[in-house]
Amino acid sequence: MNGFLVRVVVPALAMMLWPIAFAGQTNPYKAKATEELPPRNKVAHIQITQGPSLETAYSNWAIIRWTSNNPGGSDEHFGIVTYGTDPKNLSETAKSHIRLNRNHPYTEFRVRVDGLRPRTTYYYTVDSMEGNGARDGVKSPVRSFTTR
Amino acid sequence: MHLKSLLLGAIVFVMALGVAMITHGQQPPSTIYNPYPPGILPPDLNSELARVQREVDFIEAEAIRQWHAIKPPVPTGNPPILKDTGVASVEILGKLMNYDKNISPFKNTACSSCHMPYAAFSGPIPSVNLTMMAYPGSDRFRAGKRQAQRYTYSSYFPPLQYNATQGAFFGGNFWDSRATGYLTRDPAGEQSQFPPLDPAEMGNPDSACITYKLSLAVYRPLFEEVWGKDSFPSSFPPNTASICATPVGAAIFGGSATPVMLSPDDRTKSNNVYLHWAQSISAFEKSLSVSPFTSKFDAFLANKYTLTAQEKAGYDLFRGKGNCNSCHLDGRSTAPAPTDLGAVDTGVAADVTPLFTCFGSSNLGLPKNPRVAILYESTPDSFGFTLNPAGFTYTDFGLGEFLRSGYETAASPNSTWTKFAPTSDGQMQTMTARDVALVPPQCTGGTDAPGPYFQKEFFHNGYIKSLKQLVHFYNTRDVYPFAVESGHCPAGTVEKVNCWPSPEVPQNMDMTVGKLGLTDAEENQIVAFLKTLTDGYTTPYPDINTYTGTCMTGGNASTQGNSTILSAEELRAGAGARLP
Fold first, then answer.
1. Contact at CB, A103 and B165, closer than 8 angstroms
2. Phi, psi of A109 (to 5 degrees)
3. Among candidates A14, A76, A132 on the partner chain, residue whose Cβ is nearest the Cβ of B339
4. Chain mean position to CA B280
5. ipTM, 2 dp
6. Is B488 left (phi over 0), alpha (psi -120 to 50) or beta?
7. B271: closest CA among B188, B208, B344?
């Protein structure tokens, strides 16, 4: 239900109200200093709202993607995929950099997994971490994909 | 005794030969050395270089008039302040330096030769932007490895630093951030110290040469007003002019970085003069002449401009589905966007002069551009210097290469950064999005075909040729990936439309982008928004009307420049000569 509110109702309301907000072209944003912002506070519960799933797979690489609520913490973030051919022994790790958008309530993670074997089924779970290596502790189901 | 005479004679002969060789260096070599296969250099290169030189001279003359119109500043108080006209004086001094072609060994290349105002202080020659990407140096057959980066707002970047909380580097100048600002805390100023000495750019053999040429400049009185009467060395060796007319790397220098023999005191003075060169140019770059915050978007923030429907849709995509403002920060509050008129912004930091950069770096996965001139400069030139011994195997690792003080970059001033090189390989600076669309006003179609347009180039290696392609790359890099190099997209595909060749550096790829799900119309809307970041809307952009070249017409933005795409093998075989 919360996911529905965040992904459907709020954006729909925002789309309806934007024309009103801009009707007079009044800029509602007040100025502060130009500076590199400190990291935001990390949210208490980071939850996957979509995925994880296979975005694309080739013979030797693939992209896994998922959406969670915005985890906060450092803007520089990494998506992490732990994978292997044995679902009980996910021994390999791939990570990819993304940068959080502070204005978005959600975050889309995408991880490129290289060095795969053709026509092979892999099992995986996902997590994310801050730029300094601190894990977000995302709970992920074990999923699978097969390379071409 | 006879042996001693022979030895003495040999020494005299070698010295005479050396003098003769240095004297030879006062003019460009008469024997043309051209390392490029046919078609790498654009056919109109010479006429276009001459055109830019005329424009540079025009603006330099203007700057001299502007200098003479300023009331001389009066040092007042202690510490001494240049009362009333100090700001104007140092800014115009920087402008005079920026447009001074006499600083280069062959007196044919100013800083501005590669950074003209009508291109947002980036590359001024459409045919170069379309083909060889980097600009010829003072020695016309040396050219670098990256495109001329825009000056605009570069002076707002902080000194390079590693942020342990973010686990990333921020700040510095240049695509690879090698102008760190570690001493002066002024990366833009430090940046201005590199090209005069870069063998692929002006190529002076010694920083003392810049000091020497400044000592002869017509604006030396202004320099001394700003920086002091006794700034310059007391004297220069008699062979200074000859040395400074010979490009760096010439075999005659034997690898010396300081061939101008100065006394220790004069060397210190020379170094300080070069520091003042940096400070003056930095002042110019931060002035309203370069970074004025006069765009439509600035007017919008001040409630003095109404975004068109297309621009507003693009802005919403820029900070929404496109996710562009995750890196190109737009100064929006960190609070959720207000959804009704008059809503109070409860965020902690909004900004009326957003810089549209996070000051960071990322590897966007650009393909290798086989047209980059430096790839062909693998044999010794007329001076015995080889710019790129690695030839075509050269890979541009960007920030990572700098952190390890590696190939074709500068020395890192901080050994504790070296361990971050592997995770920084391929990363290039996130430039401000401001002025990405700035072009000469007569090119009313902007950057993109069908125009009339001014051909620019985008990203560090100039692989992308239009803003439409730029947005399309972010949008579809991972939708149309092909394990090929540029020029080898399979039949049935069109490079840059539905075929993206492999990244030059596959590691550390940024995955914030690559599959944004934007429609064709939405890509166009983001392009429309990017145009609102062009300075000169509220106040005319200084020297914007100095372009005397022509605008291009025809074609479409998606395939703009594709007629010049050839594979590396074809280019090396000279197939470029077949192109118009």
1. no
2. -100, 140
3. A14
4. 18
5. 0.88
6. alpha
7. B208
Which residues of chain A make contact with B481, given a CB cutoff of 8 A? 58
CATH number listed for the domain at residues A42-146: 2.60.40.10
| β-strand pairing of B361-362 with B74-76 | unpaired
- List the single residue in B307, B316, B345 with the smallest CB-CB distance to A28: B345
Mean per-residue pLDDT, B512-518? 98
Q: Is the dihedral of CA B431, B435, B436, B440 positive or negative?
A: negative
Superfamily the domain B45-286 falls into: Cytochrome c-like domain (1.10.760.10)
- Grouping H, G, I as helix, E, B as strand and the rest as coil, residue B241 is helix
First to last CA, chain A: 37
Pairing of strands B161-163, B81-83: unpaired
Point out the residue among B341, B351, B362 whose CB comes nearest to the CB of A32: B351
Which region among A32-41, B2-11, B104-113, B280-289 has the lowest average model confidence (pLDDT)? Answer: B2-11
Asked if residues A124 and A117 have their Cβ atoms less than 8 Å apart, the reply is: no
Are B319 and A23 within 8 A, CB to CB?
no
Put simply, the answer to whether B333 touches A17 (Cβ < 8 Å) is no
Tell me the C-alpha to C-alpha distance, in Å, between residue B236 and each of B12, B222, B274.
Answer: 23, 21, 15
Structure-token match 């009333």, residue found:
B84
**Triad A141, A142, A147: Cα angle to 5°:** 135
